[in-house]
């Protein structure tokens, strides 16, 4: 597996109880994601916004193909149905997961954490 920055990425399966998923209710997150430092040294960073993306797949096309797209057109992606989706935080691959339904909305259950090699 190759991470976005060209280094090898090793997936780590998530099998620990209490690991938040797309199905973890928002109200339960503070109970699940407790700071690891009892002194609260990480409290100042808890409100920093991050960009989270779940990528179903990718496709390449020309500008002409792009502008000719219309309603009900299908864009073929580079993944098969059932393959894991990549989860990026601030454009860095951090996990893979499965698409799930959460109260009639789409979500992602994390199935593995990707460890970045230095």
TrEMBL record:
One of its GO terms (molecular function) is cytoskeletal motor activity. It is a peripheral membrane protein. One of its GO terms (cellular component) is plasma membrane. It is found in: Cell membrane; Bacterial flagellum basal body. Keywords: Bacterial flagellum, Cell membrane, Cell projection, Chemotaxis, Cilium, Flagellar rotation, Flagellum, Membrane, Plasmid. InterPro entries: FliN, FliN-like_C, FliN/MopA/SpaO, FliN_T3SS_HrcQb, SpoA-like_sf. Residues 45-114 form the Flagellar motor switch protein FliN-like C-terminal domain. Pfam families: FliMN_C. It comes from the Bacteria. Residues 1-29 are annotated as: Disordered. One of its GO terms (biological process) is chemotaxis. FliN is one of three proteins (FliG, FliN, FliM) that form the rotor-mounted switch complex (C ring), located at the base of the basal body. This complex interacts with the CheY and CheZ chemotaxis proteins, in addition to contacting components of the motor that determine the direction of flagellar rotation. Belongs to the FliN/MopA/SpaO family. NCBIfam families: fliN. This is Flagellar motor switch protein FliN. It comes from Erythrobacter aureus.
